[in-house]
Amino acid sequence: MSGYLDESEFMMVEEGFTTRDLLENLLMEVSQTSDKGAFFVADLGDVVKKHLRFLKALPHVKPFYAVKCNSSEGVVRTLAALGAGFDCANKTQSTMTPVGKPTFLHLCLVLRRIPGLTPALISPGADPYTLLVMPLLQTEIALVQSIGVPPDKIIYTNPCKQISQIKYAASHGVQLMAFDNEVELRKVARSHPHARMVLCIATDNPRSSAFLSVKFGATLKSCRHLLETAKEMNVEIVGISFHVGSGCLDLKAFPRSIADARLVFEMGAELGYKMHLLDIGGGFPGTENSKVRFEEIAATINSALDLYFPEGCGVEIIAKPGRYYVASAFTLAVNVIDKQEVPLDPPGSDDEESSSKKNILYYINDGIYGSFSCIFFDRTCPSPVLHKKPGPHHPLFNSSLWGPSCDGQDCIADGLELPELQVGDWLTFENMGAYTIAASSSFNGYQQPRINYTMSREAVRLLQGKLPLPEEEDRESMCTPLSCGWEITDTLCITPVFTPARIT
Ligand code: PLP
């Protein structure tokens, strides 16, 4: 698989055996042990499927996966094997490149168990202490390069970079970098003489779930000055980038920003620039229940590109999808660790009907400081799938789900109508791949859940080059069997169809 992904790193599933079957198997296994830790099932075939869908919908756009969205090893390796590029936002802190003895800080970090770090990630000759702290510090460029991704497949997109990190990029051959202000240009002029800069422009789309232009992006008014300043400083500008905001629901957002980018290309041409790169960022939906379909957004992009950057115009188009690639591939299983009944109304209330109703608080073993950190990003209320099917006339109770930390804000979902659950019951949450693990912390000493990677045999064969990449018109039909995902219609109660394990 182009040397990026080894079969020992995931469970291969045969045709007819779904991720749900695998999840059922794992739940059975785990239920027999005393350790009922939360865990993920990550369907790498779903990532392969998304890649094919991307190539079909946006045939003129090269994807650079936004590592910040989910930097788990299986995802990064799968996308590297598929030939995607990578959008990285950092390398590491300058103090984190130890040679010789570890510092006190290293020892503190080493003493913690670091999930997700396997020997396969370690490049030959690398310092073990650096490697141990890498995953905690979101060392994106180092992570991607450690698996063998060449520097020309990396774009360093953070427009505001620490000087030591600019130098790191320079010494590791990463040339493509974003900026949006004059101070950054000065830093780059001094620290990275071979940088190829992309001017990041602001977008006007506050309807995204995470609007980025409040923090990043040059206004159209300031672009001319920035382009002139870059010329004076001898900094090479190769293109324009934007990001419409994560979770973008406005179909006009991409065309609007592509038109703005055209204006800045023209501004650049007047100043003698020959820019040849347009980066249309991320913001594509990652799940099927999104209000806007990926293909609808892609259609608006294609029309705008035809108008402003037609084929043959000499401009290469790239995108930086994050959630699109990973959201639907990850399912999280959590265990109920405690529960308590509380009155629906505050003490002293004389509303008889409400005080006779049960109101149950459930405590589960992952929370908002862990994998449910996506609640901050997406402002959503995750809805659980019950593992145990309740009886037909089971009463439903007003229920809320709470994380394991000792913090009153650690509430995952409220106002749910659930049948009564018991300690030890399992709940699963779908679409948990984007901004979940990536933004989780070890607050209160809790560890990230283990990730169980899986992939269908057909997706494996495609990655091994034994199946040709489908022609454009065939790509959609190829998508279905590559993922070993499952269909769930009832979000609360599902009947698992158990098939004996056929994991090779
Ligand atoms: N590129 C940059 C610079 C970003 O900041 C982000 C996310 O905020 C992304 C790409 C990925 O965005 P998304 O996950 O919405 O596709």
Q: What is the CATH architecture annotation of the largest domain?
A: Alpha-Beta Barrel
Average pLDDT metric: 81
Largest sheet: 9 strands, mixed
> What is the CATH C-level name of the largest domain?
Alpha Beta
Helical residues, percent: 25-40%
Helical stretch count?
A: 16
Coarse structural class: alpha/beta
Stretches where pLDDT is under 50 for at least 5 consecutive residues are 93-138, 475-481, 484-504
Structure ligands: pyridoxal-5'-phosphate
Beta content: 15-25%
Q: N- to C-terminal separation?
A: 17 Å
The rough form would be described as globular
The total domain count is: 2
GO molecular function: carboxy-lyase activity
Organism: Mauremys mutica (yellowpond turtle)
InterPro entries: Ala_racemase/Decarboxylase_C, De-COase2_N, De-COase2_pyr-phos_BS, Orn/DAP/Arg_de-COase, Orn_de-COase, PLP-binding_barrel
Cofactor: pyridoxal 5'-phosphate
Characterise the protein shown here.
There is one protein chain. With 504 residues, this protein is an alpha/beta fold. The protein has two domains: 1-47 and 329-504, Lyase, Ornithine Decarboxylase, Chain A, domain 1, CATH 2.40.37.10; 48-328, Alanine racemase (TIM Barrel, Alpha-Beta Barrel), CATH 3.20.20. The chain is 30% helix and 18% strand. It is built from 16 helices and 17 strands. The protein has helices at residues 19-31, 44-57, 73-82, 104-111, 128-133, 140-146, 163-171, 182-191, 220-233, 253-270, 294-308, 323-326, 352-356, 374-378, 457-463, 475-482; strands spanning 11-13, 39-43, 61-66, 85-88, 154-156, 176-179, 196-200, 236-241, 277-279, 316-319, 330-341, 359-364, 385-386, 396-402, 411-419, 426-429, 450-456. The strands form two sheets. Strands 1, 2, 11, 12, 13, 14, 15, 16 and 17 form a nine-stranded mixed β-sheet that branches. It has an eight-stranded parallel β-sheet with strand order 5-4-3-10-9-8-7-6, with helices on one face. The longest helix is centred in the middle third of the chain and has 18 residues, at 253-270. It starts with 10 loop residues before the first strand and ends in a 22-residue tail after the last helix. The model is unreliable at 93-138, 475-481 and 484-504 (pLDDT under 50). Bound molecules: pyridoxal-5'-phosphate. Pyridoxal-5'-phosphate binds at residues 66, 69, 87, 157, 210, 212, 243, 246, 281-284, 320-324.
